[in-house]
Specification:
Blueprint: E1 3-7, E2 35-39, E3 46-48, E4 61-65, E5 72-74, H1 82-85, E6 97-101, E7 108-111, E8 123-127, E9 134-137, E10 151-152, E11 158-162, E12 171-172, E13 178-182, H2 195-201, H3 215-225
Parallel strand pairs: 1-2, 2-4, 3-5, 4-6, 6-8, 7-9, 8-11, 10-12, 11-13
Length: about 230
């Protein structure tokens, strides 16, 4: 399987359940998955269980929209140290496009152990995540400590941050070409372009839909910027 699209599964709580009915671990592999899109799954709280992290070597596009109970992209367990003992290889070595929209209970995209797991990310869109505080969290706690760890995205070309009222983490973006920041009051990063400019200069199958942030449209921008 190379592409997986999940839409409107309102009772879905797990995408992959690694435990069988007897509590034993099931072996799950998605070695060839390149695209995962999830939309309108109101009860989904976690996308990836820990056991699956090193089993997504080809994942290229990840899009998550309107998952209102989503709290973690990667399942975290502070008492379980096995994640850091796994392979030093990135969890998502080929992920190039990541879009998060309408996931207001998400506070952190990745834990500190996953901070170097996006070496090839070119496109990042986050729109409507009112509780998001940082891209990478290292369990520093609350208050002034939040956001002190800088997120490093060495190959990012296009960044769009919109409606992130609590986001405060600074990022190192040495190859950023275009940046759009809108209603992110705690972030010092400022826009270098506009949605209108992207619409006019990078048309893709008609007009851009700026409200829904069509990832396919912006993906073409990234490809042209390479």
């Amino acid at each position: 399987m190379k592409e997986l699209f999940i839409k409107g599964c309102h009772s879905l709580t797990n995408i992959i359940d690694t435990d069988d009915e007897y509590g034993k671990k099931n072996s799950v592999s998605l070695q060839h998955l390149t695209t995962l899109e999830i939309m309108g799954c109101g009860k989904l709280e976690v996308i990836f269980p820990k056991s699956l992290l090193r089993c997504l070597p080809e994942l290229n596009v990840l899009k998550i929209r309107e998952c209102k109970e989503l709290r973690q992209i990667i399942e975290e367990d502070v008492e379980d140290k096995t994640l850091s003992d796994l392979s030093p290889q990135p969890c998502f070595p080929k992920l190039e496009a990541l879009c998060i929209e309408g996931c207001h209970k998400l506070k952190t995209l990745f834990s500190g152990s996953a901070s170097n797991d996006l070496p090839n990310l070119h496109l990042l869109i986050i729109n409507g995540a009112s509780e998001l505080e940082e891209l990478v969290g290292c369990g520093q706690g609350k208050g002034e400590d939040i956001g002190k760890t800088k997120a490093e995205l060495p190959r990012l070309k296009l960044l769009i941050f919109m409606h992130l009222s609590n986001f405060r983490q600074e990022t190192e973006l040495p190859n950023l070409k275009n940046c759009i920041v809108f209603k992110c009051p705690k972030l010092s990063l400022t826009s270098t372009t506009t949605l209108e400019y992207l619409c006019e200069n990078f048309p893709h199958k008609g007009k851009y839909c700026t409200e829904s942030l069509n990832i396919n449209c912006y993906w073409k921008v990234v490809k042209l910027l390479k």
